[in-house]
Every structure is written in structure tokens, then in C-alpha cells.
Amino acid sequence: MTTIHVKRAWGKPVRAQALVMREGFSPRYDLDRWNGVISRIGHSAEGESIRDRVLIIPTSKGGVAGGWAFFDLLNKGIAPKALVFGKLNPVMVQGAVLAGLPIMEGWDQDLLALVRTGDEVHLDPSARTLRFTPNPP
Amino acid sequence: MNDTIEVVDLHTGTLQLTPEEHAMLQGDKGPAVQEAIRFQIEVGSFFGARRFVPITHAHVMGDIEVMGDGGLQHLRSMGDQHARCVVPTSSNAQCMHFHDDARLRQDVDEGAKEREILARYKTMRIAPTDSCIPYQQVYQPKLGEHVAWGDTGTVIYANSVLGARTNFEAGKASFAAALTGRTPAYGFHLDEARAGSLLVDLRAPMRDPADWGALGKLVGHPNQDYFAVPVFDGLGRMPSSDELKHLGASLASYGSMAMFHMVGVTPEAKTREAAFQGRAPRETMVITGADIQAVYDSYRYVEGGANIVVFSGPQLSLFEMQDLAERFEGRRVAPGMAAVVTTNHMVHSDAKRLGYVDTLEKAGVTILQGVCFYILQRLSQIREENGWTNLISNSGKLVNTITAHRFNTVLRRTDDCVDIACTGTLA
């Protein structure tokens, strides 16, 4: 089991499958908010559903839409389980707190190189840790 | 008789509260204010805020397209709790255009919900200005003034051009600030976050709004970081409000940035040293005219289907409406093409009075009020129904923000956009 320490975190512990993105993410620029599928042409996770997954995202893009969008996704039953950012903006925190989604920022190892889409990850925001079983090289 | 004792959550996180803020948290000012300050404490504590700062103005963002039924229910709940804004508060661009252009049909049911949102705004003491450019008409905060603005383009303009202080206050956050009259002091409310971090040596002749959008893309895209603050130096002239508006909107969109400086132009950058607060730039970029041209050259048209030219994102100012009316005067949008402008009610009212609206509409341009194009409700279906493939715009922000709706976007200068609209020839 590998443990990653994060700089900041909020929310309750959660365990779910990861969806790893290689680029920034905005619910308005990149997501079909009616089916929960990444719809931006050419996005590294195009065609993937965010539903019930821990989104692992290097940066946030834009945009104020996230302030309401995560709450809306929750209401539609297609919300992710948690958000883990390399760097984020306040919109993501405001949106996550409103929707009750655990959120983390700033990892001490290169999470994008260590975790793959589909891996199960365990977030403990109060301990500021994210744990997972590493893939064989 | 109810003999249960209510357990009041007095969790204050990292914040030290004043007696008035304690009273809010205890519920002395009603449940809406109590819920608002609890939310603010959670968000503020994430960023390690130590205190609240009073604000003078809030700008809220919420429309049925982005709030959904869940957000509307949340707004209803605030209304049931008699939520009232304690500072002057305006609203951002909405998603329903209420225009009769058959090509832009929107859902009647969603329209009814949007009208309910706007009615609830008024009850809450929010002025439904439906403007994403409040800094050009509605309210201009001064140097050092703290506000809570809920649209990225407005935030970066307030911080950079006006020297006011705000973070991105999205969704519930701007409403909460309007109800409590304060916001947690983190990020751009604090001096240290406002120091420049990246030097941009600007050697390009900037002659069109699209050039400013292209510049925002060149600087923002490779440096996506809310806390990055680019410092532009070298323009050699005083840019207009509209030019800085396009630069800021683009930086916020591509780079998620909330502040920039321009040496000799913006109030906290009288000198390069002042902009960097005496520190050294982390990185230096040089931007030339060739770099700007390379941005235009990077876009490719997709064959087949119909096309649309859009002037939006941010909404057009009165002088942009005047300029566009002059360019379309005596011309006509080509058969099979569509041309759309968005602005707010204040600008539209004056542009109508001054004849700009009539000139544009005579040329076949559709003018939508109170909305921004990329947030329109039902936009993906509207695109499909019209077979729109390429979306051409002079807005660097718009060609980035609209992509979830699967348009192929192309950035072009204003003259090119008008020519494309009137000839139907993609260039």
C-alpha cells in the first residue's frame, strides 16, 4: 500500500475507483453534465464517466460553473465520489463543500504516474492522505 | 412542548470570529445567515483563512442550466429562510435568452424555472442585471476595496484593473457573502497573493480584441494556476477597458488565473518592481506578433455542415456594440450563416436608443440580452438542430469555454469574423 500526503483536504473518508486525467478539468468546458461523460473533443478522459469515481486531476480550469455543477451532478445521481487536484482554484472547493464531496489538493509524489484509471483509492481527508496499492511496473 | 435542546455547531475552523460573526453562527440572524457563514467557514478553513473581511458588493452567478433542479431547490430553501442580501448585489449573465429566433429554441419548462430564479433574486435583494461585465456598468470597486464576485472574468478585472480584492466566489459562495456581508480572507484578499510571479515581455502590436484573447491563451494555457499572477510589460500605450476585459477573460479561462498586472497601466504596477513586490520573476515569456499569429494559424476548420459567428464572452460593451454596428452597416449576413451577439439589458437599452441594435438586426445579426452564448440552456441540441460545425469568434474565452458542446471553434479577428459572417467563406 502506497500513501500519498496532500497539502490540503476537506470532507469525509471515501474509497472508490480512480479516474485519472492528464490535463485540467472544468465541469463546464469538458463534461456533458446530463450523462456524466467527459465530452470535450480530445480530452485525455474523453468518453469516460465520472460517476462514483475519484477524479484525479492535475489542475482546475476556468470557470465558476463548478460552484453549482457538482451539487447538480449529485442531484442527478451522476456525481463523482471525490476530487483530488494537483492545483485547484476556490471554485472547486466551494462546489465540493456545497455538494459534500471530499476534496484534496497538492500531492507529495507524482500521483499521475502512480495511479491508473480503475485503481481503487482510499482518501482520508482528516489525515490528509490518499492510499492505494501500486501497480506492478 | 418541544423539550429537545438544539445542538448548535460552533465549529469555526481556522477563523477567528468577531462577536457579530459568532452571533451569525449561533443563528441570531436567522437560519439563512447561519447556513451561509457555516459554509464560508468550511471553505475559508480549507485555505487557512484567519478572519473575515467586510465586503461592499457581491455579484452572484446562478442560472437553471448550471444550477439544475437541485440548485433551484437550494435557492428556494434560502428564500423560505427569508434570505436577504445585506450589501448591494447584482447577478451574472443567465442561460435563457427569451428571444424568438427559431434557430435558438430553448425548453419552455426550463424557461419557467429561470424566471422563478430571477424573481427569487429580487425577493433576496439581488438586482438581476444579468451582466458578466458589471465593472463596465453596474459597480466599479476602488483600489483596496473587498468584494465577492462570482464570475471569473469579473474577478480578474476587479483584482487587476481596479485594484479591488476578490477571489472566484462561485455558486453558493457569492450568495453566502451577500447574506453575511463578508468573505473569508484568503487568496487575493491578502497582499502576498497579489505579487507578480511571471513576467511577460509583450512585443506584439495588439490591434484587435482577438489579439488580447490570443495573448491570454499563450500565457494562461501553459501556466494553469489560480495563484499565478502574470505581469505584462512593453505595450507602450494605454489599453482600453474592452481590451483588458478580453485579456482578463482569456487568462481566467485558459489559466484559471484571477489577477494580472500591466506595468504603467494597472494600479498595483506603477513599476515592474512594484508589480513583483520586489521579488524576482519565476519565469519570463516573450510574446511577439508571430506568436499571436501562430495562435490563429493553429485553428482548423472542419468540412461540412453550417457555421456560426458569435460575438460574446464577455458580453459586449456599448462601444463594442457601436464598433460592430459600424462594421455591419450596409452589409448582410450570408444565407446559411448565423451571426449572434450577446450583451446585457443595460447596454442593449442604450444600444437600441442609439441605433446600433437596429443596424445590426437589419444586417441579420441576432442580439441576445442578459445571456452569454456558451452558457445557453440546450446549447448542444441547438448546435445539432442547426448542423453548426464551426463556431468562429473574436473571443479567446468563448472558443475555449464552449467546447463541451462539441463545436469546432476558430479564433479570428473582428474584421475576419464580420467578413466570414457576410460572405459565408471560411478564412
UniProtKB/TrEMBL annotation, chain A:
Residues 25-104 form the Phosphomevalonate dehydratase small subunit-like domain. GO terms for molecular function: lyase activity. It holds the Pfam family AcnX_swivel_put. SUPFAM superfamilies: LeuD/IlvD-like. Keywords: Lyase. This is Aconitase subunit 2. It comes from Hydrogenophaga intermedia. The lineage of its organism: Bacteria, Pseudomonadati, Pseudomonadota, Betaproteobacteria, Burkholderiales.
